[in-house]
Amino acid sequence: MRVPEVDLYTAINSLLDQIPEGRVSTPYHLASSLGDSDAAPSISRIMRNELRKNRHKIVENLVPETKIFRDFSSDMPLKRLAELQLSMSKRVIQEDDFKELNRFAGVDAAYRGYEVYAVCVIMERSFKILEKASTVSTVHFPYISGYFMFREAPSIERTSKLVSEFDLLFVNGHGIAHPRCCGLATCVGLELDIPTIGIARRRLVSSNGEKHYDCKSLLRDGASACTELRTDSRSPLYVSVGHRISLETSVKIVNEMMLKGNLPEPLRSAHIDARREMKKIR
User: What pTM value is reported for the model?
Assistant: First the structure.
């Protein structure tokens, strides 16, 4: 099952074009027509920052009910994508499914406008860099919480395919610690069929676990989905299973591959290089 590359900007503009002259709509009604009313705050931000040309068509203040347009015709793209995430989550392997771990890759992306700069870095356990690859492409999907995989996965997967084989991939995003148990790291792991670990700086699922030493488990449906990992006095990282690895092994490997900063070294290197590429290309 391939993850589709969805042009959500076009879908939003198509809805905006349906608003008659003299009428307006709201972030809530636009998000509902896309298939997820919870995306209303994201739609509000997108209209302010990315689709400013048509921002006059969306209002957040009180207006007469007769002015609000809500009869959109839509194929509910966010609803379809949420259903796809639920379907993908059933394929996740949360056990150690590998022979050895010697070559570690980290992949990350940086954005400037509608351009995305992705970098993949491969390292040995000794932190020696073995290989790098980078890509530049156009992004067609805005950031919407819970749907980040549809924004970043295409460029990350393309970049990861440009390097030699590796044993495990660190991804700057959640794995199964996601409202539908399918974040960016899970998506990439399933698409590339490799062990992946999700690394994030904020959580998307609620905290409901007991603290164990320096880690706090985040529970989902009675099972650990993520671990809050603190290193020294740095802000916490949220480590979650992406695919084909256990949470216990994920935390162990993250700790082993920490060198400096607050990310596993392959991911930290990819993070730095992605921003360097973004600044270099004008």
Answer: 0.92
Contact 182, 189 (CB under 8 A): no
In tens, the pLDDT along 174-231 reads 999 999 999 999 999 999 999 999 999 888 765 444 433 344 566 666 667 889 887 6
Q: Residue 252: CA atoms inside 13 Å, Cβ hemisphere, count?
A: 7
* Dihedral (CA of 156, 120, 136, 278) sign: positive
Residue 100 is encoded by which pair of tokens? Answer: 């050895």
Integer Cα distance of 252 and 37 in angstroms:
38
Amino acid, single-letter form, for residue 149 = M
Instruction: Give the pLDDT confidence score for residue 222 in this predicted structure.
Output: 62
Domains plus CATH for the chain? 8-75 (1.10.10), 104-280 (3.30.2170.10)
| Per-residue pLDDT tens over the stretch 72-113 | 999 999 999 999 999 999 999 999 999 999 999 999 999 999
Q: pLDDT, tens digit, for every residue of 134-170? A: 999 999 999 999 999 999 999 999 999 999 999 999 9
Write down the H helix ranges in 110-257. 148-160, 184-192, 247-256
CA angle 188, 265, 203 (to 5 degrees): 55
Query: Residue 271 is encoded by which pair of tokens?
Result: 């993070």
What's 203's DSSP letter?
-
The residue to which tokens 């819970």 are assigned: 146
CA distance linking residue 84 with residue 97, whole number of Å: 24
Return phi, psi of residue 41, to 5°.
Answer: -60, -40
Q: Which of 149, 143, 116, 138 is nearest to 48 (CA)?
A: 143
Q: Which residues are 133's β-sheet partners?
A: 120
